């Protein structure tokens, strides 16, 4: 058999199944030419829920009071009355500087005051005698005037001695360095026996921070601040500077969602926008009774951006981005798909998004199976439901 005959035989064998396939796809092929069944998709109406919109910010905790404890008088540190890092109360003795030189100074000032008092008595007696003598013309009027001036000088000396005594007693009191505020103290910067300097180049001894309550400082963008001010102007929200704006805070390791375990209030907004950053500094105060939070820690804060209202919520996964437009796929009564442009708002929680405009409460939107639909296509809608996750369930699933 030649080469050409073999090729012809294999060509005849291959043409047979192709012919059979062609016959199956012909007009008399039956169901093979029918349209595919409608794609199954899950649809649900938007979730209607009473919510409050929130602005969220990242910031840092700061102490409500931070005091550097410095020596007011010079001397040797005689004793230290605290342990590094402990909690101290206002007025608690922290350091004792050797008081003996200042006790001696007080004794000296007390003696000078007694001496000045004795001179006042002498000047007063001499003035009385001079007055009697001048009445009888036994001394000149100038002598009497001199006695008056001597008494005035003696009385001034008494006042000077009293002031010096008060200063000496104050220095003696400063030899016991007391806590100016209640809070947590840092470590000591000097040890017992060291010589410390007083005012004006006083030695830093330690510092104390007040921890309860504690401040939270954050930056608000100009756009957020303007939106808040507009809401205040409409009467929808309390003023940011009147101390009535409630806020909620949480630490970085506390779970996301609706759990914000640390309530506080806004107590300060700065008086100008930072030009370079386009932000304004604000401060909130939060209770810290267990003193768990320390200055310098990061945290998250949210403050209300609206009063409570009924919002329309849909999953983020149901939203399609088409250039600058946001679209959801709706299913009409005839089960055909129709795209619907929407105006989404901020994220609410657990993957849900607020819808400002574009949807009605009765609209059925595709929440699962978006890859299987196209505008105008017939679908097989399966009922579903949009729900906000329970924070406890979400935390458990995360764990």
Short description:
The chain is of the alpha+beta class and 399 residues long.
Shape: elongated
Assembly of the depicted chains: single chain
Q: Which regions are unreliable across 5 or more consecutive residues at pLDDT < 50?
A: 1-30, 391-399
Helix content: 25-40%
Overall average residue pLDDT: 83
Number of strands: 21
Record the strand order, biggest sheet.
2-15-19-18-17-16
Main sheet overview? 6 strands, antiparallel
- Helix and strand succession? HEEEEEEHHEEEEHEEEEEEEEEEEH
Compute the number of helices: 5
CATH topology of the domain at 57-64 and 214-304: Elongation Factor Tu (Ef-tu), domain 3
Task: Identify the CATH homologous superfamily of the domain at 57-64 and 214-304.
Answer: Efflux pump adaptor protein, beta barrel domain
* Rg for CA atoms: 44 Å
- What is the second-level CATH architecture of the domain at 57-64 and 214-304? Beta Barrel
User: What's the end-to-end separation, in Å?
Assistant: 76 Å
For the record, the CATH class of the domain at 57-64 and 214-304 is Mainly Beta
Strand content: 25-35%
Structural class: alpha+beta
């Amino acid at each position: 058999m030649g080469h050409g005959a073999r090729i012809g035989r294999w060509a005849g064998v291959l043409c047979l199944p192709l012919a059979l396939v062609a016959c199956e796809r012909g007009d008399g092929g039956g169901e093979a030419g029918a349209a595919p069944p409608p794609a199954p998709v899950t649809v649900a109406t938007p979730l209607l829920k009473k919510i409050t919109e929130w602005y969220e910010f990242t910031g840092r905790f700061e102490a409500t009071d931070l005091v550097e404890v410095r020596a007011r008088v010079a001397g040797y540190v005689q004793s230290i009355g605290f342990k590094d890092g402990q909690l101290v109360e206002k007025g608690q003795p922290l350091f004792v500087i050797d008081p003996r030189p200042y006790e001696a100074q007080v004794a000296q000032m007390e003696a000078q005051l007694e001496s000045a008092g004795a001179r006042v008595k002498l000047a007063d007696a001499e003035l009385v005698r001079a007055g009697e003598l001048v009445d009888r013309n036994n001394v000149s009027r100038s002598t009497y005037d001199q006695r008056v001036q001597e008494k005035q000088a003696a009385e001034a000396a008494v006042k000077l001695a009293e002031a010096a005594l008060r200063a000496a007693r104050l220095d003696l009191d400063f030899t016991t360095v007391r806590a100016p505020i209640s809070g947590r103290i840092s470590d000591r910067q000097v040890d017992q026996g060291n010589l410390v300097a007083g005012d004006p180049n006083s030695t830093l001894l330690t510092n104390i921070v007040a921890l309860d309550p504690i401040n939270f400082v954050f930056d608000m963008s100009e756009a957020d601040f303007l939106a808040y001010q507009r809401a205040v102007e409409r009467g929808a929200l309390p003023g940011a500077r009147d101390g009535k704006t409630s806020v909620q805070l949480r630490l970085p390791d506390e779970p996301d969602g609706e759990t914000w375990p640390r309530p506080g209030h806004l107590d300060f907004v700065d008086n100008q926008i930072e030009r370079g950053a386009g932000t304004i500094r604000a401060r909130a105060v939060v209770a810290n009774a267990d003193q768990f939070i320390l200055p310098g820690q990061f945290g998250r804060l949210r403050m209300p951006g609206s009063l409570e209202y009924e919002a329309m919520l849909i999953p983020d996964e149901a939203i399609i981005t088409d250039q600058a437009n946001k679209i959801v796929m709706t299913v009409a009564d005839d089960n055909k798909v129709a795209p619907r442009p929407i105006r989404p708002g901020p994220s609410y929680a657990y993957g849900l998004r607020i819808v400002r405009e574009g949807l009605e409460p009765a609209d059925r939107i595709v929440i699962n199976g978006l890859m299987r639909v196209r505008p105008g296509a017939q679908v097989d809608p399966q009922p579903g439901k949009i729900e906000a996750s329970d924070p406890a369930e979400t935390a458990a699933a995360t764990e």
